[in-house]
Design brief:
single chain, 3-stranded antiparallel sheet, 53% helix, 5% strand, globular, disordered N terminus
Length: 419
């Protein structure tokens, strides 16, 4: 039997602190915490020390809290979180209601990030890293062993940048946005350059190129493809790393710590590292000149073919489609594009899957003289903007709401003490 909603209160009635606490199922101190966060309004009792509360406001907050504590989706029983940032629907995705592909192909990464954070477009936006932050991040990254992975570098740079910011615990919107606009360029600046001269000015994509590609003089089409890839990857709803960021923000961890939580998850082969697997597969096909034997070896080993299919897109991944269209304008990308097409067509003989963004990233990194790990770096730098957007949104919610209950399946207590 479904739980029934309590009978509605008299809309004109005002509740005491005790009554409001009982209706909300919280302590009286928590009621005043709701007031301080702007979730409830209060009115002082004339001539007294207490406060009264609008019954309708209290009732609405109680309903909202009940829905959140249920924490389930009618479609799959999974955790469901309200968000105004990204919608994925019918093989398309939207940033704050605007087609994400249109935004990414018409605006720079920095402009798309600003849109995601504020809902306002700021043409010509650029991100600048403070010298002190860059210096401490570079020292920390330079101390790592040569075999350190890209996410190792970025995670260490994030922690180092946090130590250089004594105001990092300020979770106000302006402070967090200030952190976002300096942290992202700091992460790029901390990466070791692919060639001797570091580029620390200009659009972020140009600066990132000098950390990833052996080509010193990139053509405009290649730079545009990299910038668009960053913008396409800014956010993708509640991916695993984004959920980790929201859990950290729910506990009121500062923005650097929230980003660090995301970086800890993105390293998985089923998430940010997937493009590296696609890069290696694509390189094998280019080396052999035929996808069939390479795919056969993957299937024989019982491995999933990387770069194909996406559970959120029954049809084509819109990010891959947009990136492939830009790569077709780069002459040196033609061999990698043909190899990617060969992979899709060969695999389609037993599983009709479309190319996803990981395969498109692999074509970009392979054809632009970048290492297999470059796609992971692009992914992590791009997604940092999305993580900040989700952290900002979570800071405006009830603290510690991201606390699911465990379903205990162990031995029934009490058990005897072990000997």
């Amino acid at each position: 039997m479904r739980d029934q909603e309590p009978a509605p209160l008299d809309p004109e009635r005002r509740l005491s602190t005790k009554e409001a606490a009982e209706l909300l199922g919280v302590k009286p101190e928590t009621v005043y915490a709701y007031v301080s966060r702007g979730q409830l309004s209060s009115r002082r009792v004339t001539g007294g020390r207490g406060s009264t509360f609008d019954a309708r406001e209290v009732e609405a907050l109680a309903r909202r809290n009940r829905r959140e504590s249920a924490g389930s989706s009618p479609s799959g029983g999974e955790l469901s979180v309200r968000t105004r940032i990204t919608l994925i629907e019918s093989d398309r995705y939207y940033y704050r209601g605007v087609d994400a592909v249109d935004l990414a192909t018409r605006h720079t990464y920095e402009e798309v990030a600003e849109w995601l954070w504020t809902g306002r477009m700021r043409p010509g936006s650029t991100f600048t890293a403070p010298a002190a932050s860059v210096a401490v991040a570079r020292r920390a990254v330079d101390a790592l062993p040569e075999h350190a992975a890209p996410t190792d570098l970025l995670r260490v740079a994030t922690i180092a940048a946090a130590t250089a910011d004594p105001l990092r615990f300020d979770l106000s919107e302006d402070a967090v946005l200030g952190t976002a606009r300096t942290l992202i360029p700091t992460l790029v600046a901390a990466l070791p350059p692919a060639w001797r001269d570091r580029r620390d000015e200009g659009p972020l994509a140009h600066r990132l190129w000098s950390r990833l590609s052996v080509h010193k003089d990139p053509d405009e089409a290649s730079l545009r493809a990299l910038d668009t890839a960053l913008a396409l990857l800014v956010d993708h709803d509640l991916a695993a790393s984004t959920l980790a960021v929201r859990v950290a923000a729910s506990a009121r961890a500062h923005a650097y710590a929230a980003v660090s939580a995301g970086l800890g998850v993105i390293e998985g082969p089923l998430h940010g590292a997937a493009s590296g697997l696609a890069h290696r597969l694509l390189q094998d096909v280019l080396d052999q000149g035929d996808a069939a034997p390479v795919i056969a070896d993957e299937l024989r080993a019982g491995r999933r073919i990387p770069g194909l299919g996406h559970r959120l897109y029954p049809g084509e991944d819109p990010r891959a489609r947009a990136l492939f269209a830009l790569l077709e304008q780069i002459p040196r990308a033609e061999p990698a594009l043909l190899a990617a097409r060969d992979i899709v067509e060969t695999t389609a003989r037993h599983a009709p899957l479309h190319a996803n963004v990981d395969l498109a990233l692999a074509v970009l990194t392979t054809s632009c003289g970048m290492p297999p790990t470059a796609g992971e770096t692009i992914f992590a730098v791009a997604r940092t903007a999305g993580w900040i957007a989700h952290a900002l949104e979570e800071y405006g919610e009830r603290p510690l709401r991201m606390r699911p209950s465990g379903l205990y399946t162990g031995p029934k207590p009490p058990q005897p003490l072990p000997e």
